[in-house]
Amino acid sequence: MVLLENMKLGLGPTRRIPEMAKYTRGTVTAFAPFDARADAEALRKAMKGLGTDEETVLTILTTRNNAQRQEIASAFKTLFGRDLVDDLKSELTGKFETLMVSLMRPAYIFDAHALKHAIKGAGTNEKVLTEILASRTPAEVQNIKQVYQQEYEADLEDKITGETSGHFQRLLVVLLQGNRDPDVGVDEALVEQDAQVLFRAGELKWGTDEEKFITILGTRSVSHLRRVFDKYMTISGFQIEETIDRETSGDLEKLLLAVVKCIRSVPAYFAETLYYSMKGAGTDDDTLIRVMVSRSEVDLLDIRQEFRKNFAKSLYQMIQKDTSGDYRKALLLLCGGDDD
C-alpha cells in the first residue's frame, strides 16, 4: 500500500514498509482536514529567520498522526529543498528537540531505532531491551527484526546476544523468536502442570531453575499464562511476581517481571513505567518520551485509565507537575486530556 502511494507521489519505490497494525485506543489520530503542504509552509515559517515559533511546531506535530507527519516531511522537502528533521534539530534544543524528532521518526522504524541505540557503544541499556521485547506482540517482534535488518543491515538477535549474557540473554532470545503460542482456548491440565512446574522450579527448590521460568513465561499464550498465574497463587499462596522477586535478581528479574506484567495488562505495565519515569527526584525523560511517542497511536487512552486507577492521580497531572516549558505543552497534547 505504502509502495503504491510512493509511486503515485513520484517518490519511487522506497523499501517495503511493513504495514502497522490498526489500533484504536491512541490519543493521536489522523487530523482532518489535513493539508501536508499548508503544514509544511507553517513549519518553515515557524523556523525561518531569527527565533523559532515553538508553539506552531509542537501544535502541528502532536496533532497529526505519524503517517501525516511523514507526508509533511515529504512536502517540506519538495517545497523548500530542506530536511524537516535537520531543521528541527538545528532550531530546537534539549528534551523538546528530542521529543519532536522522536515524533518524526516513521512508526515502523521507531522500535528498531530504540533497540539499536540501546545496544550501541559502551554499555547496554537493558531497560529499553526489557521494555520493548516484553511488551510487543509476536507479530510486532517479527516486524522489528525485519526492519532492523533492512535499515541497519545487521541481525538484531546477533547484536543483542553480543551485548548480553546469562539467563537474561536467554529470555531475550526466546522473546525475539516471536513464537509465543497463539490464543486458542486454554488446556486446564497444562495450566495445572505449568503452575506446578514453576512452583517446583522456584519456591520448592534450593536455588532456582530459571530455565523453566524462561520457557513457560516466554512461550505460552497470554490467556494460558493468566490462568497459570491464578493457579500458581492457589497452589503456592504467592503471586508469581513475589516468587520472581525472591528467586531471581538483576536484569533477569526485571525482564521476568516485565513479561508477567505485560501478560496481565500491557496498558497497566506502561502506566507503571510512566509513573516511575516521573516519580521522585529527577525525571527519566528518555523513558517518558519513548513511551508517550510509541503508545500515542496504540493504547495511550487505556494507559491513562490504568494510571488513574493505580496511582490516584492522572497522567496529565503528573506530567504537568514534573515537566516544564514547550516540552510540557507537547507532552500534555500527546496525553490528550486529564482524567480527573
From TrEMBL:
Transmembrane segments: none annotated. SMART domains: ANX. Keywords: Annexin, Calcium, Calcium/phospholipid-binding, Repeat. GO terms for biological process: calcium ion homeostasis; negative regulation of coagulation. Gene3D superfamilies: Annexin. Signal peptide: none annotated. One of its GO terms (molecular function) is calcium channel activity. The keyword Signal does not apply. GO terms for cellular component: calcium channel complex; cytoplasm; nucleus; plasma membrane; vesicle membrane. PROSITE patterns: ANNEXIN_1, ANNEXIN_2. Belongs to the annexin family. A pair of annexin repeats may form one binding site for calcium and phospholipid. PANTHER family: ANNEXIN (PTHR10502), ANNEXIN A5 (PTHR10502:SF26). This is Annexin. The lineage of its organism: Eukaryota, Metazoa, Chordata, Craniata, Vertebrata.
